[in-house]
Specification:
Blueprint lengths: L18 H63 L1 H19 L1
Helix pairs in contact: 1-2
């Protein structure tokens, strides 16, 4: 049960924190500051790791795109040089797929 002590005079201190509240709050301020700083350090480390991973991913993606373009360019050149060989290969693969699945 909560009781109020009306013997104290609060005239002129309307809304001001009472000493019983401010003393523990002042004691916890350094702890809160330390926790905030350590949290910021962790978040900064995570952000750096994500940025590093993103950069690595983008570099690898660019390398794969270049490799794909180079491979398709080689395939197009080979098909232009021997079109009948690749037509026959496509027909043969079509027959094999039809024979296996149908």
């Amino acid at each position: 049960m909560i009781t109020s002590d009306k013997s104290r005079s609060t005239a002129g201190t309307k809304g001001a924190p009472q000493p019983e509240i401010t003393t523990p709050a002042n004691g916890t301020h350094p702890a809160v500051e330390q926790m905030t700083q350590s949290t910021h350090k962790v978040v900064d480390k995570l952000a750096d790791a994500v940025n590093s991973a993103t950069t690595t991913f983008n570099d690898k993606n660019k390398d794969l795109q270049e490799a794909k373009d180079s491979y398709f360019k080689k395939v197009r050149t080979q098909i232009k040089n021997n079109p009948m060989s690749y037509v026959m290969l496509a027909v043969l693969l079509g027959f094999l797929v039809a024979w296996i699945f149908f």
